[in-house]
Specification:
alpha/beta, globular
Amino acid sequence: MSLPSLPRPCLSSPAHGHKQRCFALSPSPSKLTIRMARSSIDEVSESGAFVRTPSAFHNFISRDPSSPFPAESGRYHLYVSFACPWACRCLAYLKIKGLDKIIDHTVVKSKWERTKDGDTHIGWVFPASNTEEPGAGPDPINGAGSVRELYEIASTVYSGKYSVPVLWDKNLKTIVNNESSEIIRMLNSEFNGLAENADLNLYPPHLQAQIDEANRWIYDCINNGVYKCGFAKQQEPYEEAVEKLYKALDKCEQILSKQRYICGNILTETDIRLFVTLIRFDEVYAVLFKCNKKLIREYPNLFNYTKDIFQIPGISSTVNMDHIKLNYYGSHPSMDPLGVIPIGPNIDYFSSHDRGRFSLSK
């Protein structure tokens, strides 16, 4: 296996601002090992707080044709889950940048299942046919039965989480990157020579410092904050996470009372990253993750903002509420042992919103 296809020993700092950590590695790349939690349920500290494990593959696709991973039409494949907010960030970028004809994608089944005969690991799996579950499809590239198999193809010594998204190189038969914050940066800029919406820049130079700062607190308090609430196993870390979550939501509500988007009157990366959490909030996080102090639809600006983003052409196709609810309520038996799925609230995100009162910036 060529060295670029292996996870890097020291993980780079991702765009969302939380710290990545180096893991104990053997001196020889051929004996590389990374020890991580096998799923999000395992990522709990001794204090009972949820602590997310970093991603492991950090190669970068470049517009430079001499790059080990050059931007080329048809070379890359994106594996996603409709249930996963991190994966849906990437799917949203494919749609709004007009890259879905350049980079194809496959959606896994909504509920976790056994990934291999003979052990107890459960995770993302592919259906056997296109008719097994609406919205999901078999792996057309590797014929894999699970996302775990993709990781094992990419590295025979990988021992971390088998997560989505996975950005796959068909030529080298390996994982390019599995960190959503880095994948969306590539999709934003490196494929502009091939993108239908090349002029759309969700990370413009004059706003980068503001975007990075907003990403930092939104990730910590909201994107990852809901998981800190839901996966906490002690009262104190749960209450601490809830307090931070609602302070951050109140901050967003105040910002959005004065402008259309988080970083001004222009759509940016920050809005896509926030949206994927907001769209799941009332349907899942308020119930399963005990984020019930206040619903998103009780925040006038945040609720209308969520509908505004949802109605951007292409975005609604990245939201499959059936997959979202089936996964969250059906794949976490320690939290919902019976797997009973709530019927509501079935929010109409196509209904009118008031965000047009703000003029757009170019």
